[in-house]
Design a protein that fits this description.
Oligomer: single chain
Shape: globular
Low-confidence stretches: 220-226
Distance between the termini: 45 Å
Order of helices and strands: HHHHHHHH
Number of strands: 0
Largest sheet: none
Mean pLDDT: 89
Number of domains: 1
Length: 230
């Protein structure tokens, strides 16, 4: 390949990454604007509680997603550590959970979920989940991740569930019907949690294996570092 062709290829690659990073920052901004707009549209209500608002898994995962999109745009691929890739995969999993759970279990409950504004609901439950998953597939992790990472990723949803039950018993409010102890009792809620845990574990494993496969195809090698358990 001649010097001119190599130069052209270099420029094309740089342009592609620039466009990708601009898109990441743009989508992160859209997510933040959507959540801010939703907050501002309901914070005047007498029954509004900021604690309730930020207790929604949807809001928490969208905040993490916006932060990760920005971080992925700022941190160059060659500078990303295995821990960065593991965190990126975790947040991608969490926002994917948000999108899938809403589509399967919560669609039509926008008023109860404080996402009754149409475009806000679309952004936090559909657009951002699709963007994060697409970004994970378009630019795969730089490092292959060990399978134990899939189990570690479940720590945050499990912590959120414990927090929700403890806080719910204190303030008599639960963010989603399937964790509403007041309506269903602890037995039913723990059964729901068990079913979701199995589904989340399968999704986490699929994310790790899929990410490793994409990483292998990109690098052409299996000898890439992974985060240590120490």
């Amino acid at each position: 390949m001649g010097a001119a062709a190599r130069r052209l290829e270099f420029v094309a690659v740089r342009a592609r990454y620039l466009a990708l990073n601009v898109a990441r920052l743009g989508f992160a901004t859209v997510g933040v604007v959507a959540m801010t707009y939703q907050f501002a549209s309901i914070d005047h209500r007498p029954e509004f509680s900021a604690g309730n608002f930020f207790s929604f898994f949807t809001i928490q995962s969208n905040i993490l997603a916006a932060a990760m999109l920005a971080a992925t745009a700022i941190v160059r691929r060659q500078e990303r550590t295995a821990w960065f890739d593991a965190l990126r995969g975790a947040i991608t999993l969490y926002i994917a959970i948000t999108g899938v759970v809403f589509a399967l279990l919560l669609s039509g409950l926008q008023e109860e979920l404080d996402t009754h504004i149409g475009w806000v609901n679309f952004v936090v439950h559909t657009l951002i989940p699709i963007v994060l998953v697409a970004d994970w597939l378009l630019e795969p992790a730089r490092h292959r991740l060990p399978l134990w990472v899939a189990g570690a990723w479940l720590g945050y949803p499990a912590g959120w569930f414990a927090y929700t039950l403890i806080r719910g018993a204190s303030v008599d409010w639960y963010p989603y019907p399937f964790v509403d102890v007041a309506s269903h009792g602890y037995g039913r809620v723990f059964v729901n949690a068990g079913v979701l845990l199995v589904a989340f574990a399968a999704a986490a494993l699929a994310f790790v294996l899929g990410g490793n496969w994409r990483c292998q195809r990109r690098t052409g090698s299996l000898a890439v570092s992974a985060p240590s358990q120490r």
